[in-house]
UniProtKB/TrEMBL annotation:
The protein, known as: Nitroreductase family protein
Swiss-Prot/TrEMBL keywords: Oxidoreductase
Domain (Nitroreductase) ranges: 17-160
InterPro entries hit by this protein: Nitroreductase, Nitroreductase-like
Keyword presence, Oxidoreductase: yes
Pfam family, one: Nitroreductase
Homology family: Belongs to the nitroreductase family.
Keyword set includes Oxidoreductase: yes
Organism of provenance: Chitinophaga rhizophila
Amino acid sequence: MSSIKIATTQNEVIDLIKNRWSPRSFSAKDISQATLETILEAGTWAPSANNSQPWRFIYALRGTAGFDKLLATLAPGNQPWAKNAAALVATIGIRETPDTQQKNHYYMHDVGMATSYLLLQALEMEVYGHIMAGFNKQQASEVAALPANEEPVSIIALGYIDDAEKLEEPYKTRELTPRSRNPIATIAAHLD
């Protein structure tokens, strides 16, 4: 039986947010191209300054050479479980617009917004995502043949959730540990 970790919140947060978490146990079920394209399109509808959309997504499906290339960029601690994901998606930030060479000082924020939309759409379709910062950026840039004005920001493992019991340690314990967040009082302050 798969593990679902629903957040216990202080306030009435919508279920889609309470249900979003980052599993490591993925099933053998493949993601269809249509499902993946829907998930990726959701990312395009995130807010961005003047609709600049300073992001790209480079993806590969399990069982392809591209998947193996992205998997090889991951840190050794991510590879043992990420190899079972149905897809790997590299999120790419565009530091300056190619046509005007104008720097975008908020591109990382915008990539994060696009990633959050992507993850929420995925969850709505019962596809889970696990974002990873543990990867070799230089190697990912080379694999994706990125131009100088672009950089990899994260790699997301996407797939259908599976039983935590199939994971080796320390991943199994991490999968089963209850979720927690800082209380509102520690992250927000009312300005008088």
